[in-house]
Amino acid sequence: MPELPEVETVVRDLRPRLVGQRIVAVRAGKKALRRPWTTAWGARILGRPVETVRRRGKWIVVDFEGSRCLVFHLGMTGRLTVHPPDEPNAPHTHLVFELERGEQMRFNDIRRFGSATLFEQPAALEGFFAASRLGPEPFDLHARYWQGCLAATKRCLKAVLLDQTVVAGVGNIYADESLFAARLHPARLAAAVTKAEAERLRHAVVQVLRRAIARRGSSIRNYVGGSGLKGRYQDAFRAYGRTGKPCPRCRTPIERVRLAGRSTHYCPSCQV
DNA sequence: ACAGGATCCTGGGGGC
DNA sequence: TGCCCCCAGGATCCTG
Questions:
Q1: Sequence-ordered list of residues with C-beta below 8 angstroms from that of A164, at least 6 positions apart, any chain
Q2: Which residues of A162-185 are buried (b: 16+ CB within 10 A; e: fewer)?
Q3: A269 touches strand C (CB under 7 A)
Q4: Longest pairwise C-alpha distance within chain A
Q5: Nearest nucleotide from residue A172 CA, by C1' atom
Q6: pLDDT in tens, A147-206
Q7: Rg of chain A's alpha carbons, rounded to an integer?
Q8: Which among A20, A110, A210, A267 would be 20 to 30 A from A238, CA to CA?
């Protein structure tokens, strides 16, 4: 579910609620997440103040004083939210972190594609990102690197945008919205686009992501920010989920196809 | 090496 | 109402 704008919103919501606070208790449910939570990890983060809350791609990083960090991925249906202690746990709550002031940060995930992992050192986390070959942030995407990535693959544009080793943070919604904004057909062979088209797409991704962050991301079914608030960018979609509705540029009905295993929405007339 | 498909999971919606 | 099928903001493993 959550792509870069949603994850960024969670991070911004959590930051003022967590930084400077200590975790006084951790409780874990029984069901396994994507990467298994190790019971002993709870004890290793107790009593240390949270130093920073940050984002890398679709990953949420909570750094503690003294070098340990907790890293979350929200998968498709994950939520990381802060609640008053007397509020009952929603179904599918897998981890509860009790904060010293009494509130609780809860990790909830219906489909359990998400994960929570402890790293002992920042270097271990960097090693993990390096091992998974996590690509650069979209906002740091250099023109030559990007053009090189496009030129070096036989895949279509949609598949390249979804590839986290090329650029980190773009998912199905923002891939479609970026391609629409750049007026590029999602099935276009990446290696066949001109330099000008590649630049159009690079700028479109940044613009779409910034606008989505400004609206706190997109809430279609499960997503809420760290404060429990929904996003509003779903009301600004121009292609994603608009199958059969008129293209906001040329009124041609938006079409839907399957590309790179994912539903893909585009205007067959003005995306070329 | 690369690209595409299957797989992990649960729940909601549509059709019959 | 019930059942079955398809669909979903993602990443990883397996195959050809």
A1: A57, A58, A132, A134, A135
A2: bbbebbbbbbbbbbbbbbbbbbbb
A3: no
A4: 58
A5: C9
A6: 999 999 999 999 999 999 999 999 999 999 999 999 999 999 999 999 999 999 999 999
A7: 20
A8: A110
